[in-house]
Structures are given as C-alpha cells and as structure tokens.
Amino acid sequence: MKKRRKKSLPKKSFIYVNRTVILSLIILLIFCIGSFIFYKFVSSRIISIVETPKTEMKKIPSDVKQKLSLTVFRVPILMYHYVEYVKDKKDTIRQSLNINPYIFEQQVKTLRDAGFTFMTARELGEVIDGKMELPKSPILLTFDDGHWDFDTVVLPILKKYHVKATAYIIAGFIGRSDFMSKEELGDVISSKLVDVGAHTVHHVSLKGRPSSVLNYEIGQSKALLENTYHLSVASFAYPGGAFDQKAIDAVKDAGFTTAVSTIPGIIQSSENRFFLYRLRPGYRTGDVLLNYLRQNAFKAY
C-alpha cells in the first residue's frame, strides 16, 4: 500500500499567516502602550485635582482672601453637629451631620492617648494675641447649634476624659424641642469644660445680608447668651459656613475675638482668625484619624 502524503500549507500561505500574527501583535502592543499612557495622564490629573490644597481657597469669599501671616499655628479644629443614634432614617440631613456616641468617644480617646492638648476657641484667640503659649499638640472640639445631645451625650464623654470643647449656640433656639433647654445649657456651662460661643439668633445665612440683619443676628446672639448666663462669649460660628467681608466686620464690631468657618484646613493665624479653618472627622478613629490629621498638617491652605 502506498502511504498517504501529509498535506502542507503552501509556502505563500504560511508566510501570510505569520505576517498576520505579527501585525496583530504589533497593533495589540501599540494599543496597550497607548492605554497605559492615557491612564497615567488621566489619573495624574485626577490626583492633582483631589490633592491640591489650593483648590480649597476657592471656598474663601473673594473679598476676604488674604495672604497668610508669617506667624501661623497648626491647630486642628474638629467640627461636629449631632452625636446620637439617629432613629429617623428619613432624616438624611441629620444622618449626614451625625457621629454616633461610640465613635465620638473613640475619637476623644484616640486624641487623648496620642497626647493631644484640648483647647477652646477662646484660648486659641489668646494664643493668636500672644497672651498665651500654644500647648503641645493642640486640638479643638467644636459643636454647632446646641442640640439636646450635647448635654446628654457629649458632656458625659467630655467629663469622662476630662477634655475641653467649644459649643456654638443658636441663642434664639434655646428651649426648642430639638435643642438644649435653658437649664441644660446651664449644666453644660457649670462643668467648666465647655466654652460657649455664638451661632446667631435664628441660624440665618449671613453672606450678602444688610447691616441691620448682620448687627442683630451677630451682636444680639452674643448679648443674649452673656446676659442670660452671666459669662463672656468670645467666639462666633457662621451658619452654614457662609460669610463675606461685611459679616466679618460685624463679628469684629460685636466684640468677638475669633470666628470659625467650614473651610477645610488646620493653618490658623491672625489673618484668618475670623474665618478659622475646621475639619470634619467623620467616622475616623485610631490611626486612621491620626493619619488624617497628619496629612492635613502639611497642606498649605
């Protein structure tokens, strides 16, 4: 029997197949290199947008942007509103501004164990004025609005760890259902751990307001708190973080020594004493919280 000869591809077909494979590989390589270059370019742009601290300066109204003084203080000011277990899941605003009590206590414990010195806004004003030396590893805890949970939840934690805080009170809301009563605020003041600041009379936005509104909401909030509780109110907080140069001037004229904003950062100085920067700690605790503070410490806002 004759053996069947194996059929083989024609020489020209073999060369054609090789060329097609090589061409496909070259196209694939070019595509991969192009995709990598595109990814690096886009990711670097995203990182620069997210991490560039100067973008935060856009949050400062154009009429109050100023060059920072040569004498600056790296003082983190943490901003809180509610500290509770929110029961109404439909209250999205409350949930977005809330820290549950367990997390807040862990944050206080983290900071205390790390050697931070808890200050008040009044004391920071004295540091800026040169009347007091800045303590080692300073930090401020600030609470806006004066909700009922400050007396029932926050104050016991402050007492437990013996740390100071500043509470910005809406003077005209004292005694309302969601806020501290006159007696509860008195209990907070008698603890000697809390410095009371003002947060307007009716929690209205101050940006673009006429002088009559500014003078009443800012000046009267200070007067109501001082006359009712026989204390000195030194610091102010802008509702919603909204302010302009007219609002700053009204705060100065009312006799406040500092005011806090919602602009992120920790660089404080005489130049921004009336719009001090603050940070939202969120749910960070332990090393995550400490690393967050370290990262912000090296950003030049």
The average pLDDT is 86
CATH homologous superfamily grouping of the largest domain: Glycoside hydrolase/deacetylase
Q: SSE order, as H and E?
A: HEEEHEHEHEHEHEHEHEEH
Radius of gyration: 29 Å
Say how many strands there are: 11
Total tally of structural domains = 2
Q: Give me the number of helical elements.
A: 9
The largest sheet is: 5 strands, parallel
Q: What class do helices, strands and sheet pairing give? A: alpha/beta
CATH class of the largest domain: Alpha Beta
Span from first to last CA? 93 Å
Beta fraction: 5-15%
Could you tell me the CATH topology label of the largest domain: TIM Barrel
CATH level-two architecture of the largest domain: Alpha-Beta Barrel
The shape, in one word, is globular
Describe this structure in words.
There is one protein chain. The chain is of the alpha/beta class and 301 residues long. The chain folds into 2 domains: 11-50; 69-297, TIM Barrel (Alpha-Beta Barrel), CATH 3.20.20.370. 43% of the residues lie in helices and 14% in strands. Strands 2, 5, 6, 7 and 8 form a 5-stranded parallel β-sheet that branches. β5, α4 (121-128) and β6 form a beta-alpha-beta unit. α3 packs parallel to α5 and α7 packs parallel to α8 (245-253). The longest helix is centred in the first third of the chain and has 41 residues, at 11-51. The chain is globular, with a radius of gyration of 29 Å.
